[in-house]
From TrEMBL:
Keyword Cell membrane listed: no
GO BP annotations, alphabetical order: amino acid biosynthetic process; branched-chain amino acid biosynthetic process
Protein name per the record: Branched-chain-amino-acid aminotransferase
Top-rank lineage group of the source organism: Eukaryota
Keywords of this entry: Amino-acid biosynthesis, Aminotransferase, Branched-chain amino acid biosynthesis, Pyridoxal phosphate, Transferase
Length: 341
């Protein structure tokens, strides 16, 4: 009997493979580097050879790089973001990873970079998830945020594209992006000038984030620093069009499709700041942000509040439930967006 007790104790003390690690406080996850996971996937591309390496998983850590690396001199770098979650079916799933692969390819073409083919991108993301499976939070407590990076890592002195590229996927356990938690409405400051300086200043004043207006007219909504934006007018929803100046969000596209399936008319059309201030509701979407109701917009010193203080707007809540229902496999996935790892 004592041997049986010892064995039973050993089994309960050993975490099941891939079960959430006990080294993280899952109830107090924010969105930050403190949740960074121990492994990353790395593959390289050499322009002379014209092909990508097989790639593999290695410990998360510094990247060896010469000061002459293209990225450090001329800034060839792009990134993606997607999440792995434990679903209600008790498995780990990704959401539309091939959309991120496609967007990385589009971004790479715009930046004259070699891009990982879709199969390498998805394999890299899956490897980063599998090797960090114990960093995928318990169901409903957050996600493993995957950050695929593509950088011009090879050396160059004169201006030009890098002779070689590095594709990296690192990961971090994350909870809600904004401090108040997922369902708490956010307060946005409307700004005309994008930049990390204005964002930091707005955050220091207590705003959740900054909503930027277009550079040409200082009048039409573009996007928030971390997410896309939508305005609601009854059964019509409007979001700024993709004209090359804002992020073609995977969550943006998904929410447009989900809203249409629920009978809303969704227009991808310019929204002036006056129209946004007059909306029934405003909400934002993004991988990190998921879907957040906007509690207030502050423009030229005046604060416009929406709905009931502290409560998400009803359309935002309906679409949040629809989106996360799919992502966490609480509902059927007629779109084929959920990708089992
Ligand atoms: C994402 O939503 O994945 C992003 O990259 C946004 C960033 C502000 C974390």
């Amino acid at each position: 009997p004592s041997l049986a007790r010892t064995v039973a104790k050993a089994v309960t003390e050993t975490e099941a493979v891939g079960a959430p690690t006990s080294s993280i406080d899952w109830d107090n996850l924010g969105f930050g580097i403190q949740g960074v996971a121990p492994s990353m996937f790395v593959a390289t591309f050499d322009t002379e050879m014209g092909e990508w390496s097989e790639g593999g998983v290695q410990p998360y850590g510094p990247l060896p790089m010469y000061p002459s690396a293209q990225v450090l001199n001329y800034g060839q770098a792009i990134f993606e973001g997607l999440k792995a979650q434990r679903s209600t079916r008790d498995r780990i799933v990704l959401f539309r990873p091939t959309s991120n692969a496609e967007r990385m390819q589009a971004g790479a073409a715009r930046m004259s970079m070699a891009a990982p083919p879709e199969d390498l991108f998805v394999r890299g993301v899956e490897a980063a998830v599998r090797s960090n499976a114990s960093y995928v939070p318990p169901q409903g407590k957050g996600s493993l945020y995957l950050r695929p990076l593509l950088i011009g890592s090879g050396p160059i002195l004169g201006v030009g594209p890098a002779p070689s590229y590095t594709f990296i996927v690192y990961a971090a356990s994350v909870g809600a992006y904004f401090k108040g938690g997922q369902l708490s409405p956010i307060d946005l400051l409307v700004e005309t000038r994008p930049g990390l300086g204005s964002l930091a200043a707005a955050k220091a004043e207590g705003y959740s984030d900054v909503l930027y207006l277009d550079a040409k007219h200082d009048n039409f909504l573009e996007e928030v620093s971390s997410c896309n934006v939508f305005a609601v007018y009854g059964k019509t929803i409007r979001t700024p069009p993709l004209a090359g100046t804002i992020l073609p969000g995977v969550t943006r596209r998904s929410v447009i499709e989900l809203a249409r399936a629920k009978g809303y008319t969704v227009e991808e059309a310019p929204v002036s700041v006056a129209e946004a201030l007059a909306a029934d509701e405003v909400f934002t979407t993004g991988t990190a942000v998921v879907l957040c109701s906007v509690g207030s917009l502050t423009y030229q010193g005046t604060k416009q509040r929406y709905g009931t203080e502290g409560q998400p707007g009803p359309v935002a809540l309906e679409l949040y439930e629809a989106l996360t229902g799919l992502q966490q496999e609480r509902t059927e996935d007629p779109f084929g967006w959920v990708h089992h790892v």
